[in-house]
């Protein structure tokens, strides 16, 4: 027995050494990715000691209702690894219904002495244009105003004898500090750094129809997904692009007035592409490096609130490692940090389950919750690496006799026990502290856009319908899909939950916690995502349900779901903390040793 205890101690120490090497913090991972992605220009002829001064760059920035994006955008702009004394900024903001002007004024007053020139203009205007139907609507007058501003910027840059002009939208994030050097080194008249989104959208088109609009092209996704890497001629670049004013052809470029041969609708990006073509200037997109990202533009009939929510979602998603994002946090300017008002979303408590050793997941998840203003309690998960037979015996834990995973044909694993216990202890806390309703989050999930608002709508719907419920999935994997789940009367956002996997996120009532505990699952344990369907009588294997006599958990699911996993099995950077070894195999081996 002494020998066995000694082996257990050695095993625990070995695990700690392995874990220290296996997981790095989010910040260590981020630094590694930055070193990998953000590579300086080789043989940059303007580098220190080369005898050349960097080209001068004029940067016009036109801002309207971007208060939500500006703290992040301005940090990326400031962090560009380019001598600020070779940069001139012209910032214009108008037609605002938010506090963009105040943010810009504070920033420009703080940094203006660092740049060669920084001019900030805020003409007094109404928030709307004459024909405007909403904040995101673009009537022709607004397109014309943008074209006129870009033309003014071009003329200012030429008068200042600037070598380049960098047009930059105020919600485009140039997270690569070497972006300007790379673009300048291309030696092209017009070139854009490819900026990606969390969807298939990017700041270029691979084809254009006869009316000047986007046309699907076979090579779009090859470029967008960087399956082929290089600098590609395309019919359209927009949002962020560099114009070489030293190039002879650039003298013919103009944004306004319209060229005498222009015949299409007045749309600022279409006008630009056609004017470039009429000036015989090819447009290029550069995807040789990861340069940055941008939020998905919304439809013209959507609201500013939806744009803010979409941007928040974008900032959260970009932190998620590939293939969703790039694994880098976009930081705001310190003194412009948004103020988040903490909310419990109407729940008594919001739990976030996280293994202490997974600092990377805690960091990402806590930031995602912070960005949404969600107040949470960090619930330290039961670490499967620390489980042993003595602990299991003390807790009265045993596997359900005859249990075999329906899909993997294996017994209950060490990780599944740790996961079950983490949820079980939360159920106990709910009952002990008489909490009416709580949310349980795991730490490897992604939020849908407008999560807070959409969840509040669900809960309001439930309250109005006076629905009796115990558990509501807000993230799950539906299994054995044969027919649609039953809809819930007066609750169009809910369905009656069928056999489901994953405990990514769910809402639990006090009655639900009591029922789950009353099932006395510890001495007949199955994975927690198998136990829940058993308790609402929807497990497809009858022999697993039979030992649990009372299976009356009232379970529903939000439809469509509001939570998804960060990664799916087989994707890049997918890793499961659900340790796959079986503790019962260890028990058997230990008995043989004794």
Automatic annotation (TrEMBL):
Keywords: Glycosyltransferase, Signal, Transferase. The keyword Calcium does not apply. Gene3D superfamilies: Spore Coat Polysaccharide Biosynthesis Protein SpsA, Chain A. Transmembrane segments: none annotated. Residues 348-530 form the Glycosyl transferase family domain. Residues 1-20 form the signal peptide. One of its GO terms (molecular function) is procollagen galactosyltransferase activity. Belongs to the glycosyltransferase 25 family. This is Procollagen galactosyltransferase 1. It comes from Ciona intestinalis (Transparent sea squirt). The gene is LOC100183994.
């Amino acid at each position: 027995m002494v020998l066995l205890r000694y082996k257990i101690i050695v095993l625990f120490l070995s695990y700690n050494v392995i874990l220290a090497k296996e997981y790095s913090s989010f910040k260590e991972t981020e630094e590694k990715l930055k070193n990998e992605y953000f590579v300086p220009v080789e043989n940059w002829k303007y580098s220190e000691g080369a005898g050349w001064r960097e080209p001068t760059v004029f940067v016009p920035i036109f801002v309207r209702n971007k208060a939500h994006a500006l703290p992040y955008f301005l940090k990326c702009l400031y962090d560009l690894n380019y001598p600020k004394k070779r940069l001139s900024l012209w910032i214009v903001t108008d037609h605002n219904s938010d506090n963009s002007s105040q943010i810009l004024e504070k920033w420009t007053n703080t940094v203006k002495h660092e740049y060669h020139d920084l001019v900030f203009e805020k003409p007094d205007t109404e928030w709307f244009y004459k024909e405007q139907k909403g904040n995101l609507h673009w009537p022709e007058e607004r397109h014309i105003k943008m074209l006129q501003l870009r033309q003014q910027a071009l003329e200012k840059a030429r008068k200042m004898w600037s070598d380049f002009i960098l047009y930059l939208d105020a919600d485009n994030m140039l997270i690569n500090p070497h972006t300007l050097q790379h673009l300048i080194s291309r030696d092209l008249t017009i070139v854009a750094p490819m900026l990606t989104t969390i969807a298939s959208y990017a700041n270029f088109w691979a084809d254009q129809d006869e009316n000047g609009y986007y046309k699907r092209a076979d090579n779009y996704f090859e470029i967008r997904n960087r399956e082929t890497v290089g600098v590609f001629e395309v019919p359209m670049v927009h949002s962020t692009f560099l114009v070489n004013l030293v190039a002879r052809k650039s003298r013919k470029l103009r944004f306004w007035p319209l060229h005498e041969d222009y015949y299409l609708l007045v749309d600022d990006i279409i006008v630009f592409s056609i004017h470039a073509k009429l000036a015989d200037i090819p447009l290029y997109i550069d995807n040789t490096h990861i340069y940055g990202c941008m939020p998905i533009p919304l439809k013209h009939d959507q609201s500013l609130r939806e744009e803010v929510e979409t941007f928040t979602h974008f900032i959260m998603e970009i932190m998620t490692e590939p293939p969703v994002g790039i694994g880098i946090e976009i930081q705001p300017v310190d003194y412009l940090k948004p103020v988040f008002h903490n909310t419990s979303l109407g729940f008594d408590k919001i739990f976030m389950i996280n293994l202490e050793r997974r600092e990377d997941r805690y960091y990402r998840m806590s930031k995602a919750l912070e960005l949404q203003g969600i107040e949470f309690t960090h619930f330290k998960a039961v670490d499967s690496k620390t489980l042993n037979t003595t602990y299991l015996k003390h807790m009265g834990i045993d596997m359900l006799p005859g249990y075999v995973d329906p899909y993997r044909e294996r017994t209950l694993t060490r990780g599944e026990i740790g996961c079950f216990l983490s949820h079980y202890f939360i159920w106990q806390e709910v009952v002990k502290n008489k909490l009416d309703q709580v949310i349980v989050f795991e730490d490897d999930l992604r939020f849908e856009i407008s999560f807070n608002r959409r969840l509040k709508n669900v809960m309001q719907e439930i309250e109005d319908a006076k629905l009796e419920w115990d558990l509501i999935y807000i993230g799950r994997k539906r299994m054995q899909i044969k027919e649609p789940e039953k809809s819930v009367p007066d609750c169009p956002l809910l369905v009656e939950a069928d056999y489901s996997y994953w405990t990514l996120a769910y809402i639990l009532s006090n009655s639900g916690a009591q029922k789950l505990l009353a099932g006395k699952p510890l001495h007949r344990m199955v994975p927690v995502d198998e136990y829940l369907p058993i308790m609402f009588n929807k497990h497809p294997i009858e022999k697993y349900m039979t030992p649990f006599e009372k299976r009356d958990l009232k379970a529903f699911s939000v439809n469509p779901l509001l939570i998804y996993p960060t990664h799916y099995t087989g994707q890049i950077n997918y890793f499961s903390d659900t340790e796959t070894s079986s503790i019962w195999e260890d028990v058997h081996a230990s008995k043989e040793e004794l």
